[in-house]
Description:
By secondary structure, the protein is an alpha+beta fold. It has helices at residues 41-49, 97-106, 112-125, 141-153, 171-188, 199-205, 223-228, 233-238; strands spanning 3-12, 15-25, 30-34, 56-61, 64-68, 73-74, 82-85, 159-163, 191-196, 208-213, 216-221, 243-250, 253-256, 261-262, 273-278, 283-287, 297-309, 314-320, 323-329, 338-344, 349-351. The longest helix has 18 residues, at 171-188. The radius of gyration is 25 Å and the shape is elongated. The structure holds adenosine-5'-triphosphate.
Amino acid sequence: MGISVTDLSKHYGPVAAIGGVSFEIADGEFVSLLGPSGCGKTTTLRCIAGLEHATGGRISIGGRLVSAPAEGLLVPAHERQIGMVFQSYAVWPHMSVRQNVAFPLSVRGVSAADCASQVAEALRVVGLEHLADRHPSQLSGGQQQRVALARAIIGSPAVLLFDEPLSNLDAKLREGMRGEIHRLQRRLGIAAVYVTHDREEALSMSDRVIVMEQGRIVQVGTPRDLYRRPRSRFVADFVGKVGLIALHRQGDGWASTDGTAILVAPGEPCGPTALGAVRPENIRLLRGGEVAAAPEVNLLSGIVTEAQYLGPFTEYVVDAAGASLRAFAQMDLPVGAPVTLGIAAEHLVLVPDA
Length: 354
Ligand code: ATP
């Protein structure tokens, strides 16, 4: 069993950084903690690592209870069988690559021969064998982060913890490293927790994503689940671009503020009003007058208010049904053009408007 967190809380004086967070992560599973700055993701990770002491709740790693403040139990960080990678790399400038990677083993008293072979293997895994004798100042940012990765995986940890490890790298390198971290974790088959505020990173790397807001979990799901079926306005907004149409009940169905009947996907139970959430790629842009064939499609008249050419497509903002909706299309339309938006009912997801 990878990681189990039950009712975890952490207070800094009167400030509740996290309040009652629970989740389980299986061996081999890659889970991201995603949320805006200050939502408590780093604090959660640091409590798992043992770098912060939780105020309440229980944490188990690899089936072993490591934190239960109510019972006075606290296993120190260096006994928790974790490998951790930080945003700042945290490699030591006065040590060579080899010495940096060997450090966790040397403090545990592993024999020199054992240490040498494990270091060689870890460096091979991250592709740095040829740079073993360099110092960090002689390495690029991406190479330094690989040193940190090698140091995290040495000594067969039960779990890997990542705290925004790619935020200091440039965009291109970041994408490459995403794949590298993911492949490495798959190979090791151990649980990984990855803290990020970058939704693309979370969606592209994770088996499941835990979305946090103000010290609490607001939704947990696979990347597709979260993107396609957000259960709140906050999640809809945080995991991607979204258009939100204000709706009210009308007879058995729903209508927009301008009185147009709107067909929606079955969603969360809502009150008399709600929001219909739709992703830009699920809106078909039709020139004014053109009509879509399928029956379960909302046809909304609108006017183009913004157009941004992005190469593969143009991102339009269209005022329709009392909302500003983003849509992607390859056609070329000027601002002010009348259009019809085609939105299939299955792509309009109800979320509470509160
Ligand atoms: P970021 O993405 O900016 O790192 P985060 O989601 O990781 O944000 P945390 O760093 O976990 O958020 O912080 C959660 C809350 O706890 C914030 O309101 C923060 O101000 C508060 N906090 C964190 N560390 C301390 C501390 N040492 N003393 C007091 N408050 C703290």
